[in-house]
Design a protein that fits this description.
Distance between the termini: 35 Å
Structural class: alpha+beta
CATH architecture of the largest domain: 2-Layer Sandwich
Helix content: 40-55%
CATH superfamily of the largest domain: Malate/L-lactate/L-sulpholactate dehydrogenase, NADPH binding domain
CATH topology of the largest domain: Ribosomal Protein S8, Chain: A, domain 1
Largest sheet: 7 strands, mixed
Low-confidence stretches: 333-337
Order of helices and strands: EHHHEEHEHEEEHHHEHHEHE
Number of helices: 11
Radius of gyration: 21 Å
Strand order of the largest sheet: 2-3-4-8-5-6-7
Number of strands: 10
Number of domains: 2
Length: 337
């Protein structure tokens, strides 16, 4: 779970974005690609999904500096039909081909009702919700998933290993209420012998969902075949993605869909919350609220997050913009008489 830190400093988007862009320019990305990546990572932070936002910069920079991925990829459409496309990431990060895939799938759906694109030959694409939301913002249902090649030792690995912890995201259009967006890994519990015995349903559901993501984001995306048939790939380019857009207008009137979706979300938020929580929400509701609020007040970055970014900046000799920011600490609770 991504939980806002209790101790943090507020960093404005206008401060964080150029800093992140500069880090990627220092490891060889073009100005345009560095800006695109910074925008996507900061947007992920804005939604509170810190695990897949700018915190990923340390691992991404290491991949670039060790030349495990291509800092100057030429993303290309290698096959295209009226409703489909196959996109090659040229050994770079997955954000660039996946962003193109989401936009192309959306355009095809608006023209033909459905649009589906696969991507291959790239590394991590970050949080899946970035891509499912692009069709949703255009009045389509969006689906995004990814999977990757990984070594398996049949002598030691359980069957659950093939699920890969793959991500999946669905996003639905909305009007007045916060959007319904599912954005999650397909692994729910830590796999120990005890957990398997206590929660077999969760284990098997996670296995099934992860295997489905592999079928779409790896096998259908051509990642497996590519690694069998092509040589001289960047060693970190072991991932693929599948992105689908469905135009709701082809099934029900757009206004009726938006009205009914708003009513559904409103109903859910009016019900009793789960034990231990003070409010009821559907997936995606909090991210929507955080993005709107934190764009105004600044993104709360905790000490570990800041230390990670500052460590990358020292290695690359890039000044950090955090020195004058004020640390916000949790208020001490008053003793009750």
């Amino acid at each position: 779970m991504n939980v806002p830190p209790k101790e943090f400093i507020r960093v404005p988007v206008e401060v964080l974005t150029p800093f992140i862009r500069r880090l990627y320019e220092k490891v060889g990305l073009s100005g345009e690609d560095a800006q695109t990546l910074a925008d996507l990572l900061v947007l992920t932070d804005l939604r509170g999904v810190f695990s897949h936002g700018t915190q990923q910069t340390a691992s991404y920079v290491d991949l670039y500096r060790t030349r495990r991925i291509n800092p100057r990829p030429r993303v290309t459409v290698v096959r295209e039909g009226p409703t489909t496309a196959v996109i090659d990431g040229d050994g770079g990060l997955g954000h660039f081909p996946s962003l193109l895939a989401a936009r192309m799938a959306t355009a095809k759906a608006k023209t033909h009702g459905l649009g589906a694109c696969t991507t291959r030959n790239h590394n991590h694409f970050g949080g899946a919700g970035k891509y499912s939301r692009i069709p949703a913002e255009a009045g389509c249902v969006g689906l995004a998933t990814s999977s990757h090649i990984f070594p398996v030792d049949p002598k030691t690995a359980r069957v659950t290993y093939v699920a890969g912890g793959s991500p999946i995201s669905f996003a639905f259009p909305h009007r007045d209420e916060p959007p319904l967006v599912i954005d999650m890994a397909t692994w729910f519990v830590h796999e120990t012998d005890e957990m398997i015995q206590q929660f077999p349903a969760a284990i098997f559901k996670g296995l099934g969902m992860g295997a489905t993501c592999a079928g779409l984001g790896k096998i259908l995306a051509g990642v497996t075949d590519l690694h069998k048939t092509r040589k001289h790939l960047y060693p970190g380019a072991n991932q693929g993605a599948f992105i689908l857009a469905i135009d709701v207008e082809r099934f029900v009137p757009r206004e009726a869909f938006l009205r009914d979706m708003d009513e559904y979300v409103r109903l859910a938020r009016s019900l009793k919350p789960l034990p231990g929580y003070d409010r009821a929400d559907l997936p995606g509701n909090l991210e929507w609220e955080r993005e709107r609020e934190w764009r105004r007040t600044g993104i709360p970055l905790g000490p570990d997050h800041l230390a990670l970014l500052e460590g990358v900046a020292r290695k690359l000799r890039v000044p950090t913009p955090f020195g004058k920011s004020r640390v916000v600490k949790p208020k001490a609770k008053r003793a009750r008489s």
